[in-house]
Amino acid sequence: MNLKKAFSEISELLDILFHDREEILNLSRNIVRDCSIAIKNIHRKEFDKFHKRIEKIKINHENLQNLVNKNPGQFFKYLKTPEQEFVEAIAFFSIIDKKEIPSPLDLKINPFNYVLGLADVIGELRRYALDNIRNSRVEDLNSILEKMDDIYTHLFTLDYPAGVTQDLRHKVDVARNLIEKTRGDISLAIQMDDLKKCFENNI
Q1: Domain final residue pick, 109, 142, 163
Q2: Would you state the pLDDT for residue 83?
Q3: Coil, strand, or helix at residue 169?
Q4: How many domains does the chain have?
Q5: CA-based Rg of the chain, rounded to a whole angstrom?
Q6: For the chain, what is the mean pLDDT?
Q7: How many CB atoms lie within 10 A of CB 187?
Q8: Does residue 101 share a domain with residue 119?
Q9: What is the mean pLDDT of residues 112-129?
Q10: Which of 109, 129, 156 is the last residue of a domain?
Q11: CA 8, CA 133: separation in Å to the nearest integer?
């Protein structure tokens, strides 16, 4: 094989890789953006919009996986962020809807990206709890805190070196701090609500 032919074939391969990479990056950006909107839909209780957005995300995720699977050695890393965001949105809604969180197999998500997404959902649950506190809704606060604790407990069991889990340990440390802050905020909110009820009953 002469060099001209060899480099012609290499150029063809690189053209294909370049095209696939551009499409992967575009799908990834769309998934991340749509997951952010889906999470906002949950906070705003726009559940119909959430479900429509999730259907779109699922289609884009399937297309993304198909492209990645053509050259996993080159492209596997591009699944990390969009899959984390996808898991975060799905897990957040499942908790608010009082349903079981789907498994990695259910979502067709890489297990490692799945646990990273679960670690991130604790931040959204804190935000949800604070919104409830501001609106004087204390009924579900303890169940939200219990779910945060449950997720953290499971994440904490994955005690492996950073070379294996990458940034999971940092996310778990952040989650612990968020849970402790939320625990204090919820305790104070419930105490204030009890005090308010006592005052109203004595009027």
Answers
A1: 109
A2: 98
A3: helix
A4: 2
A5: 22
A6: 93
A7: 13
A8: no
A9: 96
A10: 109
A11: 64
SS3 of the chain: helix, strand, coil, percent, to 5: 85, 0, 15
Same domain membership, residue 118 and residue 168: yes
Same domain flag for 127 and 52: no
Whether residue 172 contacts residue 152, with contact meaning beta carbons closer than 8 Å, is answered with yes
Which helix (H) or strand (E) is 196 found in, with range?
helix 168-202
DSSP assignment string, 30-49: HHHHHHHHHHHHHHTT-HHH
Q: Quickly tell me which residue has 């931040």 as its tokens.
A: 123
What pTM did the predictor assign? 0.90
pLDDT digits (tens, 9 = 90+) for 145-168: 999 999 999 999 998 887 888 889
Do 99 and 4 reside in the same domain of the chain?
yes
Question: Average pLDDT of 53-65?
Answer: 97
φ/ψ of 20, rounded to 5, equals -65, -40
Give 103's contacts (C-beta < 8 A, 6+ positions apart).
114
User: How far is it, in rounded angstroms, from Cα 100 to Cα 107?
Assistant: 13
CA distance 90 to 82: 12
How far apart CA 106 and CA 97 sit, in angstroms, is 17
* Encoded tokens for 91: 């897990």
DSSP 105-151: HHHT--HHHHHHHHHHHHHHHHHHHHHHHHTT--TTHHHHHHHHHHH
